[in-house]
From TrEMBL:
<dbReference type="Pfam" id="PF00534">
    <property type="entry name" value="Glycos_transf_1"/>
</dbReference>
<keyword id="KW-0808">Transferase</keyword>
<dbReference type="GO" id="GO:0016740">
    <property type="term" value="F:transferase activity"/>
</dbReference>
<dbReference type="Pfam" id="PF11997">
    <property type="entry name" value="DUF3492"/>
</dbReference>
<dbReference type="InterPro" id="IPR047691">
    <property type="entry name" value="PelF-like"/>
</dbReference>
<dbReference type="InterPro" id="IPR022622">
    <property type="entry name" value="DUF3492"/>
</dbReference>
<dbReference type="InterPro" id="IPR001296">
    <property type="entry name" value="Glyco_trans_1"/>
</dbReference>
<feature type="domain" description="Glycosyl transferase family 1">
    <location>
        <begin position="274"/>
        <end position="445"/>
    </location>
</feature>
<protein>
    <submittedName>
        <fullName>Glycosyl transferase family 1</fullName>
    </submittedName>
</protein>
<feature type="domain" description="DUF3492">
    <location>
        <begin position="1"/>
        <end position="252"/>
    </location>
</feature>
């Protein structure tokens, strides 16, 4: 069996939860071949952060904003664009459009979809929409905004991926649409696994952005919703890491029977020799992750300033690479200086996290968005209590699910609430019995539900079930 595993902007170039998950999955399925497929933005040289396991027998990469010449494919036909015109009508219903577009693409697979941008239909459509809805907008800006919205979508549809027995995409986005079109072309099943919910994350990103004009934000959001709807329709199975995620998937997917939950799992043997640090002098907190805006390191630094006033011997390690968003790292470093925390907060850069786990009294997650963080599972397996924001699966990991009522393994706070975050840290510092109980509960929870062998077994079973 050969599985095409599709990553968008992560593995093998970016270290993090999704990349670690993918690398671990491949490494522990030695009897299955993998083709790693990376979807990048623009062509450039990049250094791999992971060494592929031996069962990665193929690697393929394509770029969303590259100019490709699809010589062996037909230009879109008038019949195709006429059908398209009946589907894409304003006001846009992403649910219905996604399903109708899926069936249209199923019948029209060997097109150079980028030729759509040069079709008479495209030009007349954008002119009509401009004249009716955006007549006061600068037309060149309008034209190029639409182009930047459409070209990555169309490239993803037109690209030919290596032939595999299964396509397993880790997002509904451009990687997802590419998986669906190639799955249709080769008559192969597609599995979708969502760590975070792509259309929700893009919506948040678009609404917060200052580079997209307000007039275009709704269009961007509806495009990503439509892409997700197509992928949900075409995927044979849809997995996510925890049940709450399915609420958002059901916004755009009515076929609930194809949905299932497969939690992350970690190799508990890898951490069995690390002892939880019970000594409180200094009381040491660790954030394990990239120094990027979505991890909201600034809120953690604000919480550290408050905690420092209450806990005199206090240390915060920020353990992870600092080069992905250099401007954000600079702002965080300047905040540390302004708050007079240079002796308290340490940015370690890229290191082996195992060398720091035995130094930590608490793991801290300050993110504004997460899936099911592997670092929480790693910490809990060692017995490190966790303070985390209420995003993704953090609440379920710390407080347990309906199948798990053994108690809290830490404290959950609202995102951005640095005062609550600081108070949670102080509570765990002062309440020795709570901290000890949380440590024991965390270890028990991981062993019950979040072991690597359980996760790998579930995905292997899923792979064989879709090709039978």
């Amino acid at each position: 069996m050969k599985v095409g595993l599709l990553f968008e902007g992560t593995y093998p170039y970016v270290v993090g939860g999704v990349s670690n998950w993918g690398h671990s999955l491949i490494k522990n399925m030695k009897d299955i071949e993998f083709c790693v497929i990376h979807v990048g933005d623009t062509p450039r040289e990049r250094k791999q952060k992971y060494v592929f396991p031996e069962n990665v027998t193929d690697y393929f990469e394509f770029y969303l904003f590259a100019k490709y010449k699809f010589k062996n494919k037909r230009k879109v036909t008038k019949k195709f664009t006429n059908s398209l015109g009946k589907i894409i009508t304003y006001p846009f219903n992403e649910n219905k459009m996604g399903k109708d577009l899926y069936y249209l693409f199923k019948k029209n697979l060997n097109f150079d979809f980028t030729s759509f941008l040069k079709s008479e239909f495209y030009w007349s459509s954008i002119l009509k929409f401009y004249e009716k809805y955006l007549p006061f907008e600068n037309f060149p800006n309008y034209y190029w905004t639409l182009y930047s919205m459409m070209i990555p979508f169309l490239n993803s549809m037109a690209i030919d991926l290596p032939k595999c027995d299964i396509y397993h995409t880790i997002t509904t986005g451009y990687a997802g649409i590419s998986a669906i079109l190639n799955g249709l072309k080769y008559n192969k099943p597609v599995i979708l696994t969502e760590h975070g919910i792509y259309h929700r994350e893009r919506q948040l990103e678009i609404l917060r952005s200052d580079w997209i004009k307000e007039e275009f934000k709704t269009g961007w959001i509806k495009l990503f919703n439509t892409i997700s709807s197509i992928v949900y329709k075409g995927a044979k199975k849809i997995t996510t890491l925890f049940e709450d995620n399915q609420k958002f998937e059901k916004e755009l997917c009515s076929e609930h029977s194809k949905m299932l939950v497969i939690p992350n799992g970690i190799d508990v043997e890898r951490f069995k020799d690390i002892q939880y640090r019970k000594e409180k002098q200094p009381f040491t907190i660790g954030i394990v992750g990239r120094v990027v805006e979505i991890k909201d390191i600034k809120t953690a630094i604000k919480a550290a300033r408050i905690a420092k006033d209450e806990i005199k011997s206090f240390k915060l390690y920020i353990i992870g690479p600092t080069d992905e968003e250099p401007d954000y790292f600079k702002e965080c470093y300047e905040m540390v200086e302004i708050f007079n925390l240079k002796d308290t907060v340490e940015f370690t850069g890229m290191v082996d996290v195992k060398e720091y786990y035995d130094k930590l009294n608490i793991l801290l997650i300050s993110s504004i968005s997460e899936g099911q963080p592997l670092v929480i599972l790693e910490a809990l397996s060692i017995g490190i209590p966790v303070v985390a924001t209420n995003v993704g699966a953090c609440r379920e990991l710390i407080y347990g699910s309906k199948e798990d009522i053994i108690g809290p393994a830490g404290i959950v706070v609202k995102p951005k609430d640095f005062k609550a975050m600081a108070n949670a840290i102080i509570t765990l510092y002062k309440d020795d019995s709570f901290r000890k109980r949380a440590s024991e509960i965390g270890k028990k929870r991981v062993m019950l539900r979040y072991r690597l062998d359980q996760m790998v077994g579930n995905y292997k079973k899923l792979y064989y079930s879709v090709v039978e």
